From TrEMBL:
Residues 104-181 form the Ig-like domain. This is Ig-like domain-containing protein. SUPFAM superfamilies: Immunoglobulin. Keywords: Disulfide bond, Immunoglobulin domain. It holds the Pfam family C1-set. InterPro entries: Ig-like_dom, Ig-like_dom_sf, Ig-like_fold, Ig/MHC_CS, Ig_C1-set, Immune_Resp_Modulators. The keyword Disulfide bond applies. It comes from Hemibagrus wyckioides.
Length: 189
């Protein structure tokens, strides 16, 4: 009996550490979301946490009652296609703002240039090979210690975002072109 209580206490402590290190948000009735951290993802912390949670559940241990329902369902099924998450489930401010922009009818792409020299980098945008000038906002070049930086944002209507497949930011600098291309199909399952 003492061994069983000790095992349950150990599992409870492990779940508490998983909650503390890998989840964020309030402890409201909806629960917490996983922390967005590529370092922890790269080191398989979430995979290990899932294995600990699965072992705890399989052995009749404490349930992870701190996470959002969609997250718990994903851990149980592994099926991301059937998970229905809403904008209220997103706690990351930047991601939440992007979702809101898409639902309101626009999307923005950002091209950042930094640490280049000499001055004079130009930025242009294409969608599926056609140059786009509407919705482009490019900052002035800023100089710091002889190096320059600037940014350019392309804001697209929801329609153009949904129709487009290939979005390119082309940087022309020092007699050379440097295109950076984003393809939506590379991000979709």
């Amino acid at each position: 009996m003492a061994d069983e209580e000790s095992a349950t206490e150990t599992k409870s402590e492990m779940l508490a550490e998983i909650e503390k290190k890998l989840f964020l948000g309030s402890t409201d009735k909806k629960g917490k979301n996983p922390l967005y951290c590529l370092n922890r993802l790269d080191h398989n912390y979430f995979r290990t946490a899932g294995e600990v949670i699965a072992a705890s559940m399989a052995q009749g241990g404490p349930l992870p009652n701190f996470m959002r329902e969609w997250c718990f369902r994903y851990l149980c099924s592994g099926d991301s296609d059937s998970i229905q998450a809403s904008t209220t489930d997103v706690t990351d401010l930047e991601l939440s703002q992007l979702i809101m922009k898409l639902s309101e009818g626009s999307a923005s792409l950002l091209c950042l240039l930094s640490g280049y020299s000499p001055q004079g980098a130009l930025v242009s945008w294409t969608v599926d090979g056609s140059q786009v000038n509407t919705g482009v906002l490019t900052s002035a070049e800023e100089e710091k210690s002889g190096r320059y930086s600037r940014s350019s944002t392309l804001t697209l209507s929801k329609d153009l975002w949904e129709k487009g497949e290939e979005f390119s930011c082309k940087v022309s600098h020092n007699n050379a072109n440097h295109p950076v291309t984003f393809r939506k199909s590379q991000c979709e399952g």
